[in-house]
Amino acid sequence: MKQNTQSEWVQRSLKSVWHPCTQMQHHETVPLIPVSHGRGAWLYDTDGNRYLDAISSWWVNLFGHANPHINTALKDQLDKLEHAMLAGFTHEPVVRLSEQLAARTGNVLGHCFYASDGASAVEIALKMSFHAWRNAGHTAKQEFVCLKGSYHGETIGALAVTDVALFRDAYGPMLRQAHVVMSPDARAAREGETAADVARRAAHSLELLLQQRGTHIAALIIEPLVQCATGMAMHDPVYLSEVRAICDRYQVHLIFDEIAVGCGRTGTFFASEQATAKGTEGAEKQSVWPDFVCLSKGISGGYLPLSLVMTTDAIYQAFYDKDVTRGFLHSHSYTGNPLACRAALATLEIFEQDDVLNANKLKAQRMTAALQPLAAHPNVRHFRQRGMIWAFDAKIDDPAAAATFSRRFFSKALESELLLRPIGNTVYLMPPYILSDKECDLLVARTAAVFESVIGGDS
Ligand SMILES: Cc1ncc(COP(=O)(O)O)c(C=O)c1O
C-alpha cells in the first residue's frame, strides 16, 4: 500500500473536517484515507490503493458503489425534480416508494413518514408512540424500554434508548432515563440452554417490567435479530413473537428499528419476517409486525440520506382530526427528498430483477463454509452468522492488547486492501450483496490472515 498520510486531501481534511465518531488525535497514528472514487465493492484512494468495502460503508451500501442501475435512475430524476417540500406537496417517487414498502408488509404498515438519517427515524417513532397514547387519553404513558446493549442513534431522544456507555455516558445528564431490559443475545446461554431459551428468558424479564410499569410505558424499541452496534449480538427470532405478544398484553407499542438489519441484511427484506406470530405456527403462519418500523441505511442503496417510519392505520387514525395539535407536527427540510426516494425505488427494483434474497442465501452459505477454518481458530469465540452478517469475538487475554485490538486490526486490514472496523473485540463482515465468488474468497482469506497477524502480535 502506498503511504498517503501526506496527501494534500488528508492534511486539508484534518484541518477543516471534524470526522464522525472519531477521537481526532488518533489520526496522528491511524491513517485517514482520501477516497477518490468507488466501483462495485471497492473504494479507491487518491494514491491508487483499493479497499474492499467489507462493511458496506457503515452498513449502507447494498449493490456496490457507482451502481449503474441506481446511477441511471438518479440522473433521470435529477432532470425532473431534485427536491420539493413534502408539506402541502407530493411527488411520484415518494408515493411509489411508500406503496411498495407498505405492500412488503401486506399493508399492515401502510403509512410512511419520512426523514433523513436513522436517528431521526427513531426520534419520530418515539414521538409518534408518545403522542398517539396522549391523543388516546393515556397521558401517563411516557416511558420507553430498550435492550441492554441497544443502539438507536446519537441524537438526544435516540441516545436515551441507547445502552452503549461509550456513546452515552458523556451526555447522561441530558438524557431521559429509559428502562433497560435483558438482551436476548444468544451468547448469554447458560449451560444446556438454547438461543431460543435465552430469548424466552429475556422476554420474561420484559414481562416482569411491564407487569409493574406497563401503564406508564409507551413503547419497547428493539433491533430485531441482530443488535449491530453493540457487537453483532444475535438472537433467536422467537424473541420477536414473544415480545409482540407481551406488548399486546400490556398495551405497549412495539418499535422495530430495522435501520441496520432491514433491506435484506438478515436474509429477509424485513428482519421481523423471520418470526412467526404466536399461536399461528403451522398452515396459517403469520409474520410478526410491530406498530412502527424504522428504516434507513440500505433503503437508498447507500446513496443518499433517507429514513422513514412505517406505521399502522390504528396509529395514523389516532392523529387524524380537525384539531391541528392532534396531528403529528414533525418535519425535516429534506423530508421525502425525491432523489433519495428514487434511489430507493431503483434499489427495490434490483431486489426484484436479481432475485436478491434468494441469491444471497447461496452467497451466505458459501461464505459461511469458507469461514469455517477461521471459526475454528483457538482465539475465535462465538462465530455467528445471520443472512449477510458474519461476526466472531477475538479471545485476547491481555487487557492492553484488547483495548487497541480494533484499531490495530483496522490498520492491518487496510494494508491487505480490506475495509474492516471491528467493534471492540468483535470482528464482523457486512459486505455489499454484489460480491463475486472471487471477492468472497479474497475477503475470507485476507480476513483470516489479518486476524492471525494481529492476534499473533498479541501473544
Ligand atoms: C440500529 C440502528 N439504529 C439507528 C442508527 C442511527 O442511524 P444514523 O447513523 O443514520 O443516524 C443506527 C446506525 O448505525 C443503527 O445501527
UniProtKB/TrEMBL annotation:
Its cofactor is pyridoxal 5'-phosphate. Pathway: Cofactor biosynthesis; biotin biosynthesis; 7,8-diaminononanoate from 8-amino-7-oxononanoate (SAM route): step 1/1. It comes from the Bacteria. CDD domains: OAT_like. It catalyses: (8S)-8-amino-7-oxononanoate + S-adenosyl-L-methionine = S-adenosyl-4-methylsulfanyl-2-oxobutanoate + (7R,8S)-7,8-diammoniononanoate. InterPro entries: Aminotrans_3, BioA, PyrdxlP-dep_Trfase, PyrdxlP-dep_Trfase_major, PyrdxlP-dep_Trfase_small. Pfam families: Aminotran_3. It is an enzyme of class 2 (transferase). Substrate binds at residues 58, 151, 297, 331, 421. Keywords: Aminotransferase, Biotin biosynthesis, Cytoplasm, Pyridoxal phosphate, S-adenosyl-L-methionine, Transferase. The modification N6-(pyridoxal phosphate)lysine is found at residue 297. One of its GO terms (molecular function) is adenosylmethionine-8-amino-7-oxononanoate transaminase activity. GO terms for biological process: biotin biosynthetic process. Pyridoxal 5'-phosphate binds at residues 118-119, 257, 332-333. The record marks 21 as: Participates in the substrate recognition with KAPA and in a stacking interaction with the adenine ring of SAM. Its EC number is 2.6.1.62. Its main location: cytoplasm. GO terms for cellular component: cytoplasm. Belongs to the class-III pyridoxal-phosphate-dependent aminotransferase family. BioA subfamily. Catalyzes the transfer of the alpha-amino group from S-adenosyl-L-methionine (SAM) to 7-keto-8-aminopelargonic acid (KAPA) to form 7,8-diaminopelargonic acid (DAPA). It is the only aminotransferase known to utilize SAM as an amino donor. This is Adenosylmethionine-8-amino-7-oxononanoate aminotransferase. It comes from Glaciimonas immobilis. The lineage of its organism: Bacteria, Pseudomonadati, Pseudomonadota, Betaproteobacteria, Burkholderiales.
